[in-house]
């Protein structure tokens, strides 16, 4: 490696084989209990829970450690209503034909439609934005690298953090998502909406589509050579 400032790795914890396997299985079982739901309770969730989960997302690896992401955590009823109104307007055109027959057929087993009441009902929405320029310091204006990959990793961290904290989640990606930039007051020139996460407690009548439980086997998703 080239010369660079560094420090010894002191916080790595090594486990025995049995403990490694037990921890891996525990995480697998925890992950298998994570489901995307579309019926949320309006039960409040403390800000500190969301804040801590976002901190966890901020530990994700990123290109050149530029951390090209910004998270807008939305609890305001007025802002959530604005987002719902804008999203449902787009979704109506999507389901009325813009998506195309093949895409709509793929969605039928999930039971989705243009109505998105959870955008207003859930206690928190988290808008994830990617940044074209930045750096380790928020004042930097350097080019960011591997932006899509980096923000995807951070979003994955966030979803798991929310799940492990005891909250249900749903990913929402209306197209186009430019209305999020306006509603959240973000920089149009540098930032692009990446995803909208809904987070909160599940409604007592929440369900999981059977279709969503059909996961590919290890032989279908991985090869060992």
Automatic annotation (TrEMBL):
Q: Which domain of life is it from?
A: Bacteria
Q: Which InterPro entries does the record cross-reference, listed alphabetically?
A: Nitroreductase, Nitroreductase-like, Nitroreductase/BluB
Q: Which UniProt keywords apply?
A: Flavoprotein, FMN, Oxidoreductase
Q: Nitroreductase domain location, by residue?
A: 33-201
**Metal-binding among keywords:** no
Q: What is this protein called?
A: Nitroreductase family protein
- This chain's source organism reads Pseudoalteromonas marina
């Amino acid at each position: 490696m080239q010369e660079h400032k560094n420090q010894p790795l002191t916080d790595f914890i090594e486990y025995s084989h049995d403990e490694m396997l037990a921890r891996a299985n525990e995480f697998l079982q925890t992950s298998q209990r994570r489901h995307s739901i579309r019926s949320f309770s309006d039960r409040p969730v403390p800000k500190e829970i969301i804040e801590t989960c976002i901190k966890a997302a901020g530990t994700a690896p990123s290109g050149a450690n530029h951390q090209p992401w910004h998270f807008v955590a939305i609890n305001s009823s007025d802002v959530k209503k604005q987002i719902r109104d804008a999203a449902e307007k787009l979704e109506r055109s999507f389901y009325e034909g813009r998506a195309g027959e093949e895409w709509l057929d793929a969605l039928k087993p999930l039971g989705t439609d243009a109505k998105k009441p959870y955008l207003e009902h859930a206690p928190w929405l988290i808008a994830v934005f990617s940044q074209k320029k930045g750096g380790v310091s928020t004042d930097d204006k350097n080019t960011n690298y591997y932006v899509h990959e980096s923000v995807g990793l951070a979003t994955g961290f966030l979803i798991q953090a929310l799940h492990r904290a005891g909250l249900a989640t749903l990913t929402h990606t209306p197209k186009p998502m430019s209305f999020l930039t306006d509603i959240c007051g973000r920089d149009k020139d540098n930032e692009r909406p990446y995803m909208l996460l809904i987070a909160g407690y599940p409604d007592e009548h929440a369900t999981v589509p059977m279709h969503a439980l059909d996961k590919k086997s290890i032989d279908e998703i991985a090869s060992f050579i």
